[in-house]
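Hey, I was hoping to borrow your eyes for a little while. For a while now I've been wondering how a particular protein folds. The fold is given in discrete form, as structure tokens running alongside the sequence. Could you read through the record and tell me how the tokens relate to the sequence? Take your time with it, there's no hurry, and the full record follows here:
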Amino acid sequence: MSFKELGVSTEVVELLEKSSITVPTEIQKQAIPVLMQDDRDMIGLAQTGTGKTLAFGIPIIELTDDEIQFTQSIVVAPTRELAQQIAADFRSIISPGRKLVVESVYGGTNVSEQIKNIRKNTPHILVATPGRLIDLLERKVLKLDQIKRLVLDEADEMLNMGFKEDIYNILSYTPKEKRIWLLSATMADEIKKITRNFMENPFEIRINQGEKVNKNIEHVYTVLRRENKTKAIERFIEAYPEMYGIVFCRTRMDTQRLADDLLGRGYAAEALHGDLSQQQRDRVTLKFKRKSLKLLIATDVAARGLDIDNVTHVIHHSLPDDKEYYTHRSGRTARAGKKGISLVLSTEAEQRKMAQLEHQLKIHFKPVKIPGLEEIRELRLKTWAYDLVKAEVNSDVSRELFDEIKQVFDGIDKDVLIKKMISKELKKYLDQNNEDLNVRHSTKEKMVLKNFKGDRFFINLGKKDRMGKPELEDFICQQSGIPKQYVGMVSVDRLHSYFEVDKKHSKTIADKFKNKQFKGRALRVNRHHSK
């Protein structure tokens, strides 16, 4: 099926072809014909990388009336990067002769400039982050009383980031007659509430829900001690000099520490996380897009909206708790039909999570070894030799210089000369530590991880206490003395959280928190019984 057969105009089809987009993805096939009718709400359950932006973007562009000078469509996205990407995708399919105005507004930049742009030329389509959109509405810079379409993109991510109240607030500014198109990776309970309270008879699209991960991604892992993770990344960089990848860490602190360590050791790596100013984040992202950086070290939230081609590797410094985050991370590679590698640097405690991901996502993790120095030397020397053979002859080399150098080599056997050249290259590696970084499991350890059975507990700490999943997991282990491999799934809400503990430790877990406080408040941990 072609875009033309879906009802897309010739002008837009031609612009898509200029971007080498000729065959609709599954979500585009299902969504575009229905959305073009402009008479239904829609729920699209799809992962990043499935083509969902154009699935709602093409209908919006086609349905917008250039002659009407008010905002007709609003797209709300969780991060600045994603908002910018959506706006850029929209502009790429607008015919040069149209008067259609697309603006994007987001936090972390001067609001006055954005207000000026909106007042100067009212956008037909506005792409916004929740906080900045609320700001502009409260300043009465924007009016949404006439909008025809509201898109909530990556709705589950916005809720995870604490934008629930903002989303409800935004909806209160909109007319009842509008269409709502909601895109999400999961059908979480809060998403269901939005669909029940604000959407009317929505049609639903589910894309690859049973097969969520790009088949062009090879999933591999290595087992090592936590303190050796930076060394392991260095080894993989040295073994694969063409690597152009993203390393995902769980916390901002881990992200910055790893980037500083790699940069200090001479590798082109920088961090991307929420503690950076927007100007710093833009600078790092641009450097990575231009390939001035070999590795981008990022948190999950900071990497939302990154759409960069030719990423060869995604490296998981530590695994996320949710399978959707693993899918999103891995989807940064193997784009546009290319192949890519998703590499997990796994401690023994993370082996259980890997087993869960295999089961939930129907993927298979293949074990790989961290390269040793001998292997790295061999790979690098072969690359050096091939590069030497492929090198172009420089026309600036004078005949006199060539004859003089050639005379230096006269009388030396070819094999001896090659050995001398190899020996000189080898000197670069001779002073490096050849420690084996790989960890091997005993049968007992494998059984402990495989047979994890947990009880669920409530704790009165949540996002308001600046607790994310990794921070809460660390806190539980520190306070209780339980090793991390015996703490299961952790879910964090605004005021409280839930966590699993292996049954062998669960009998005493509540006692471990008795009479303990967090910032002057008594901690409360109770066994949670599901209804």
